[in-house]
Amino acid sequence: MPRWLAGTGHNGRVDPEEVTAEAVRPLRRPVLVQRWEDLAFLHWPVDPAVVAPLLPAGTRPDVVDGRTYVGLIGFRMVGLGLFAGPGLPYLGTFCETNVRLYSVDVAGRRAVVFRSLDASRLLPVLVARASLRLPYLWSRMRLRRDGDVLTYTSRRRWPGPRGAATAFSVRVGAAIAEPTPLEHFLTARWGLHTRAYGRTLHLPNVHPRWPLHRAELVRLDDGLVRAAGLPDPGAAPVSVLYSPGVPVRFGSPAVVR
User: Fold this and answer.
1) What whole-number distance in Å separates Cα of residue 121 and Cα of residue 88?
2) Nearest 5 degrees, angle CA 157-CA 145-CA 227?
3) Alpha-carbon span 125 to 178, nearest angstrom
4) What structural domains does the chain harbor?
5) Tens digit of each residue's pLDDT, the chain (257 residues)
6) Nearest-5° angle of CA 76, CA 79, CA 82?
7) What is the distance, to the nearest Å, from the Cα of residue 84 to the centroid of all Cα atoms in its chain?
8) What DSSP assignment string belongs to the chain?
9) Of 219, 215, 221, 223, nearest to 239 (Cα)?
10) How far apart are CA 131 and CA 218, in angstroms?
């Protein structure tokens, strides 16, 4: 039996929680506040067996219809700050592009696992790497808007691989009244998993329901997915979405294993 299937269902692990459009776990005391703006979500299906070795101990690939996904997400981080805020006006606002996978832990909590997080501010990169061991990387980045087309560009500076880059553009379309089950699965994520100092952690987050739009891929020249240790998708993404953004709060991490 593949490792990513071992122990699922009724073999000792809790079944995954339901995919919900809004957070169901209360967050009483935030440790981080921020706002995510102008997000573009690009997703490709990938074999769960390929990503299973890349996930932290105590987690396995989260699947829908037998497939899991790799996401390339570009956006603007705004007003990152500690506790209830206020956010930092300069150091807390920057462009970010991440490559992420989808995970579920032994308690059934669905989350994301970041393979890379390119950001254009060095200080948040250093703090995130030191505190939660998140794979943040310092990059030259730009987010440009021309009418209904947004273009996200990034070229890595440190720590490497230096020069790893991405450039993609999306055209924003109509608002989505009711996302499909797959669109909920890819966007309604109420936490992240990370491996830090010998432990796997779950860091919860809450935010309002996503305002989502259909989007059209205009351009894609990406090297970040491959640089993150994943196969080159080699095809157009199966899902392209846009959101104007949401305010977000993160809570204290809980130990998974």
Assistant:
1) 12
2) 30
3) 35
4) 32-255 (2.40.400.10)
5) 343 343 334 345 789 999 999 998 889 899 999 999 999 999 999 999 999 999 999 999 999 999 999 999 999 999 999 887 777 787 899 999 999 999 999 999 999 999 999 999 999 999 999 999 999 999 999 999 999 999 999 999 999 889 999 999 999 999 999 999 999 999 999 999 999 999 999 999 999 999 999 999 999 999 999 999 999 998 999 999 999 999 999 999 999 98
6) 130
7) 22
8) --TTTTT-TTSSSPPPPPP-SS--S---S-SEEEEEEEEEEEEEEE-HHHHGGGSPTTEEE--BTTBEEEEEEEEEEEEEEETT-PPPSSTT-EEEEEEEEEEEETT--EEEEEEEEEES-HHHHHHHHHHH---EEEEEEEEEEETTEEEEEEEEEESSSTT-EEEEEEEEEEEPSS--HHHHHHH---EEEEEETTEEEEEEEE-PPP--EEEEEEEEEE-HHHHTTS----S--SEEEEEEEEEEEE---EE--
9) 215
10) 37
Here the tokens at position 216 are: 């059209």
**Single-letter amino acid code for the residue at 126:** L
Q: Which amino acid is at 54?
A: L
The tokens of 114 are what? 């970041």
Question: Which tokens belong to 8?
Answer: 């699922």
